[in-house]
Write a structure and sequence with these properties.
The protein is an alpha/beta fold. Helix content is 34%, strand content 19%.
Length: 478
């Protein structure tokens, strides 16, 4: 059936909905309810098949969006999946956790609600799994050159997938017990259930990729052996060093980094043994410092663990609800975003700075905070300066403080030190934007370890790009 070219005038946006709050906070299962097939086809019909589809340009992966929307409407889901998978090796993940840069630049979004691109993507890949469109596709010809990929997060998986498809013998090294990196240990199950990773990992194994877990390269596995056993190396270890806060009382018991808290929570849900310090929010007053996605994930975990209260504070101003004038279409705007976790409870405050951690007998009891204001004056570069609001101090009761203020750079100990790769001014691996080469011959870097903490779509894109450059490098070494 031919798609109604005026569908965008007749059909309103209908996004995926969440399960009932009272139901979902009792478990760690996916909060999303996928749309029915007919509803997804109607949403795909809203796509205008623009002459210049800006959704392409805003997606680092270059997803072929109008084409697979057309195929959804035509009930040709197997072809839609081929288009989707040609640019994205983990659409079942991006369809759940990507911030959907593409939707912000959808042409329909100029004067209406944009297409549900992320939801449509997720429906395609989940139907592909349920209808067995997805099967292992190992390369028909093997090139007997070996590549080591260090790190099994999205950048590492993308690198390994595309190199394996080119015929190289690829081994992924992961220092943790299971594959997935931040996808496994940093994203709660209610956003990304771990069976989703397991079914993809099985396919990658069947396609010939070798996975080695519990191997900390540079410590357990010597760099000398790495150089001897592999023809090329790609570092995709992410950016895991958390940003700290150096204030009075920081040494008190009860203050933890967000990733330590989330790793605990994910291991607890999966039944994996927790070797680190046990952290729980049960029956505690919790304050999450940091207003980003990681902080929101911590809020959702705390609610599920039975926290007495949850408060999230952010030093920056509260974003506007609508697209601001200085971020016109097709830019991705900074606007107020309410996650599923925020819907479930807790309080949110903006323009709040933490001044001191207050304790009793070595344990955290409260945060001393103060209000701040931005925009009253600027520095010599035109950047808005932060001003403390006089006499605005207040306290928030807290038995647990979670520091979710982002990440600074990759860990240096072990691999990076022993490989002698050059580090840039920001503390990331210095690797060229064009070919991803480091200063060490045969060693490449991609993802957050190279560009700094960023989005999953950038990690996947860099994995694909570095695979192309490693291929060129190895062909030149014949």
């Amino acid at each position: 059936m031919k798609k109604d070219v005026l569908g965008f005038l007749k059909i309103k946006r209908q996004a995926n909905v969440y399960r009932d709050i009272l139901e979902r906070i009792k478990d760690n299962k996916d909060v999303l309810i996928l749309k029915k097939e007919e509803d997804t086809k109607n949403q795909a019909c809203r796509c205008m098949d623009c002459g210049t589809p800006f959704c392409h340009s805003s997606c680092p992966l270059g997803n072929i969006i109008p084409e697979w929307n057309e195929l959804i409407w035509a009930d040709r889901f197997q072809e839609a999946f081929k288009f989707l998978h040609s640019t994205n090796v983990l659409p079942e993940v991006t369809g759940r956790i990507c911030p959907a840069l593409c939707e912000a630049s959808c042409v329909l979004g100029i004067n209406d609600d944009p297409i549900t691109i992320r939801d449509n993507e997720l429906f395609i890949v989940e139907k592909a799994f349920s209808d067995n469109f997805i099967k292992a596709n190992p390369p028909k010809i093997r090139i007997h050159k070996r590549v080591a990929v260090i790190g099994s997060g999205p950048a590492g998986i993308s690198t390994a997938y595309f190199l394996n498809q080119k015929g190289y013998e690829v081994t992924i090294f992961e220092k943790d017990e299971n594959i997935g990196g931040i996808l496994r240990y940093g994203i709660p199950d209610f956003k990304l259930e771990k069976y989703i990773l397991e079914r993809r990992i099985k396919i990658l194994k069947d396609e010939g990729i070798i996975f080695k877990t519990k191997v900390n390269v540079g410590i357990d596995y010597k760099v000398e052996d790495l150089n001897k056993n592999f023809d090329a190396i790609c570092i995709a270890i992410g950016s895991k060093v958390p940003r700290d806060i150096k204030i009075k009382g920081r040494e008190l018991d009860g203050i933890h980094f967000a990733m330590d808290f989330l790793i605990n929570a994910n291991k607890s849900v999966s039944g994996e043994k927790i070797k680190e310090t046990k952290i729980t929010a049960k029956d505690k007053n919790v304050v999450v410092i940091g207003g980003g996605d990681t902080g929101a994930d911590c809020v959702g975990v705390c609610i599920r663990q039975g926290a007495k209260s949850v408060t999230q504070i952010e030093i920056m101003p509260k974003p506007p609800k609508e697209r601001p004038l200085n971020m016109p279409w097709p830019k991705y705007p900074t606007i107020l975003r309410t996650s599923s976790s925020h819907q479930e409870g807790g309080k949110r405050y903006w323009e709040v700075s933490t001044k001191e951690f207050i304790g009793e007998n070595g344990k955290l009891k409260a945060l001393k905070c103060e209000k701040v204001k931005f925009g009253l004056n600027k520095d010599v570069h035109g950047k808005l300066l932060m001003n403390i609001v006089q006499n605005s101090e207040f306290e928030i009761a807290a038995d647990l403080a979670i520091l979710a203020m982002g990440f600074t750079n990759p860990e240096k100990t072990g691999l990076l030190e022993n490989l002698s790769v050059e580090i840039d001014s920001r503390g990331n691996i210095k690797a060229c934007d064009s070919d991803f080469k480091t200063n060490v011959d045969g060693v490449f870097a991609c993802g957050d370890a190279r560009r700094g903490a960023s989005l999953i779509v950038w990690a996947l894109f860099e994995g694909k790009s570095v695979a192309d450059n490693i291929n060129e490098y190895l062909k030149s070494k014949k």
